[in-house]
Amino acid sequence: LLLFPSSPLSPPPTTPTLLLSSLSVSHVDMCQQINRPAHHTVAFDNANLVVRRGQEFVLRVSFSRPPTPDDDFQLEFLIGSNPSANKGTMVAVTFGQRRGGGGGGWVGRVLEAQGPSLVLGVTPSPNAIVGKFRTYVAVVGRSGMHRTRRDPSTDLYVLFNAWCPEDPVFLPDEAERREYVLNEYGIIYQGAVKAVSQRTWLYGQFELGVLDACIHILDASRMPIYHRGNVIKLVRRGSAMLNSQDDNGVMVGNWSEDFSMGTAPTLWTGSVKILQEYANTGVPVCFAQCWVFAGIFNSFLRCLGIPARVITNFSSAHDNTGNLKTDLIFKTDGAPDKRSTRDSIWNYHCWNEVYMARPDLPDGMGGWQVVDATPQETSDGHFRCGPASVAAIKEGLLCHPFDAGFCFAEVNSDVVFYKRDRYGTLTPFRVDKRHVGQLVLTKAVGSDRPFDITYTYKYREGNNQRTMNRAEEYGCELDHSELPETLLSVYLGHDFNLQLEFQNQSDTPRTIQVHLAGSVVFYTGVEAHTFRDENLTVTVGANQTENVTLRITAQEYMPHLGSQLSLHFILTGQADDQSLSAIEVVNLETPPLMLRLSGRPKMQHEMSVTVSFTNHFQFALENVQMALEGPGLLSYRTHFYSVIAPQGSIDWTETFTPRIDGSKRIMATLSCSSLTQVKLFHFLNFISFPNCKCILIMNRRHLCTCLSLFSFVLNAV
C-alpha cells in the first residue's frame, strides 16, 4: 500500500465504484411442461405454447448477469402486422419499479430469482385479443432500449378461457367445460323425428395445423385484429366465413345430387382435413351440407376456446318469405302446389350453440346462443346467423340481436295449409301448431346419449301463449284464421305396408276424398322425385276408425333414391266442410361397415386398421369412395373402388401410430351415387401406466339406427 500526501489541487480520496456490465438476454424458456397442463392445452399438436387468457402463465428469462432492482426490462407481446399499444395489439408487461404500467390489462410479476435467471408470471387480460402473439424481451440500458431478436419458438397463442370467471365465455361446470371445449369427438343427430339416427363427427380441434387454420380464417375474413377479443363479433364473423356464399369462406354448400367436382358431404369423417385444405390453398372446399357446416364450426369454436355444441332441430322450418310462418300451398284437388310453395320444412337442421355472456342484452339473455354457418338467409348483407339468445327465443323477445326472429321460426312457427281455387285465391284450411320443432337434440355431457333440449327453446304446448303473443308484438305473423273444428283425423303409420288410419268423431258417416303424394326428398324437405300420386275415396262410419293399407314397393322409389334416404308422404283430405292433413317422413337404413384393429396396443407403436364392406344388393355399386380418420391416431385418408359387384366384398387396410393417450375414435364412411350415409366408428381408450405404455380397450358400435325398411323391402323384391 503506497501513501501519497494530499495536495490542495488533488480531489479527496473516494471509494472505488464497480461498474456493472450492460444487461442482455441470453435465452427465453416458455415453460411448456408447466403451462400446458395448467391451461388445459396439452392436447394441442403444436410446437408453440398455447395459453388461455385471464390466467397466469410462467416463463423463464436468462440474462447475461443477475438482474438488480435498478435494471429496467419488460416483456412485449405483439400481434398483427402493425402493432399498436392503443389498439391492444402491442402489449408491454413491466416488472419491478414499473410494475403495472402500460400492460393493457396484462399483469406481470417476478416469481423466482435464480442467479441470472428470473421466473416471470404473466396474466393476460380476460378480454385480451385471441390469436398468435410474438414475444420479445426489451431491456433499457444507458444507450437506449434493446429488444431480443425474433424467435419463432417463443411465439404464443392466446385463447378464450372458459375456466376464467372474468372471461365472457366462462362456463361454471367443469364437466361441461371438458365436454364443450376439450372433447374432440361429437355425435350429430340426423334422420327424422320418429327415426333418429346419429353420425360421429371428429372435431379434431387439437390436431396439427388446425389452430393456425382457425386463425387463418379470421385473417381471410379481414376481421380487425383489435376486435378478436370480442366473442360476440368473432362468432358472428366466423358464422359468415365457414360458408363460401359471399366471402370465399371455408366450404361450398351443395344440396344437389352432383358431387363430381368435390367430396360428397356424406364422405367426410370430421373437420381436420377440411380446415387444413382451406388453410393451405385459400380455396373453398367442396362440398358441405348443414351437419358438415355445424361440425366444422364446432371445431373452429372449440379450438379458439369457446364452449360450443352441435344442435339438431327435427322438423325445422325454413322461412323464406320472412313472415315467420310456414306456408304450404295445395291445388284444388289436394295435390301439393310445388311451384307456389316457397317455405320448406327440413327433416332436420343442424346448427351450433355457443356459451357466452351477453352484456349487450338485458339480464338473463346470456348463456347458450344460436349460431349457424349454413347459408340459408342473409343477415346484415352476409349469409350468417346469430348469435341469438336461446332464452330470448323461448320468451319471444325477437327484438334482440342477432337473427332471433329467423331462429324462432325454425322451432316455433305455425304450419298453415292453403288451398288455391280455380281463380288463384288462397284459403287456409288447416293450421298445425305442433309440427315444427318437434324435437331438439344435442349430445349429452360425458355420454354418447342424446340430450333433449327442446324446452330450452319453447314452452310446452298449451303454456306458450304469452311467448307467441310477445313474438307477434315484435313482428311474428301468426295465423288467426277462424277454421271450423275438425272432427276428422288421419295418421300415417311407419310400416311399409303404409297404414292410413282415419278417425271420425262425428255422429254421422263421412266420405273423404283423399290425395296422397309420396316423394323421395332431400333432408331439407326439397323434393327430388315424386313416385306416388294417388287419389282415394274413404268412407268412415260415425264415431268409427277406418284403416287403409297401401303397399309401397321398392320398384317405385329405388330408381329415384340416388343418394337420399328419406321418403316423404303428405296426405290431404276433404269431406264436406271438414279438412284433414298429415305429413310423415320415412328414413331408410343402410348396410354396415366392419372395422378390425390389429397390432400391439402401445403408444408410438405401429398398428393397423382394416375396413370391410359387403355389397348385399342385387346391383353393382360404382365409383365408391371410402374415408378413414382418427384424431391422434391417423390423418384423413381415402380409397376408391371403381365397382363393387353384387354380393362382392372389399377390404381396405391402413397403418397408423398412436401419438397421444386418452379416449380416441376411428371413423369410416362409404359413399357412392346409389348409396350414402354408410358409417361406422370404433371407440379406443389408451391409458398410460407407470410400468407399461398403454392399454387398449375397444368397443365397436354400428351407426345404422333408422327404420329397418331398406333391407326388408329389398329382400322382399
Secondary-structure topology with pairs:
Layout (H helix, E strand, L loop, with lengths): L24 E5 L2 H7 L10 E4 L4 E7 L8 E7 L11 E5 L12 E8 L2 E7 L7 E11 L2 E4 L8 E4 L14 H9 L2 E8 L2 E8 L7 H11 L10 H11 L9 E3 L18 H10 L3 E4 L1 H14 L4 E11 L7 E5 L13 E13 L10 E6 L5 E2 L2 E2 L1 E5 H6 L8 H9 L2 E6 L5 E7 L6 E5 L6 E3 L1 H4 L7 H9 L14 E5 L4 E8 L5 E12 L5 E14 L4 E7 L2 H8 L4 E10 L2 E10 L6 E5 L8 E8 L6 E10 L3 E11 L4 E8 L5 E11 L2 E15 L2 E11 L7 H7 L1
Parallel strand pairs: 2-10, 13-14, 16-22
Antiparallel strand pairs: 1-3, 3-7, 4-5, 4-8, 6-7, 8-9, 8-10, 11-12, 15-17, 15-24, 17-18, 18-21, 19-20, 22-23, 24-25, 26-27, 27-30, 28-29, 28-31, 31-32, 33-34, 34-37, 35-36, 35-38, 38-39, 39-40
Compute the separation of the termini in Å: 119 Å
Q: Helix segment count?
A: 12
Q: Report the biggest beta sheet as strand number plus sense, adding barrel if it closes.
A: 6 strands, mixed
Extract low-pLDDT stretches: 1-18, 687-717
Integer-rounded radius of gyration: 32 Å
Number of strand elements: 40
Can you tell me the CATH class of the largest domain? Alpha Beta
